[in-house]
Amino acid sequence: MGALLTPAFGTVFWASIAFLAVLMLLRRFAWGPILQALSDREETIAGALDEAKKVRQEMADLASSNESQLKEARAERDRMLREAREMVDKMISDAKGKAREEADKEVASAKDAIALERKAAIVELKAEVGTLSLEIAERLLRDQLQSSDEQQALVNRLIDESPLN
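The structure corresponding to this sequence follows.
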């Protein structure tokens, strides 16, 4: 049984030579391409990591740029809203001023019309009072001067009171 576990010198020698031959063949034909593939893979991963860093930096720059553009857009919007409010306020104040001027003109025109109507009414009233006074005086005189003696006495009295004397 002990012979089964102990290898013969020739077997060990030829196994070692075969191992070295396979090792040389693997080193020459397999390790080079494997190491080259690993090296290429490492370079690809390093390049991808560098590219990811660049993209991350570009994204950060883009976010910063977007933030500044957003601030500028907000400032522009606020300025436009402020200008629009100022324009609306100016238009409202101009419209109020024009309306006030028109109202003042209308009030002045109405006052002038009222004054003219008042003068016309006063003139008409005076004319009416004059006509009415003449009618009343005429009726009184008719009633008082029914006889010719009364008429003669009135004429004499008017002549006496006249400033021509």
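Helices lie at 2-5, 9-144, 148-161.
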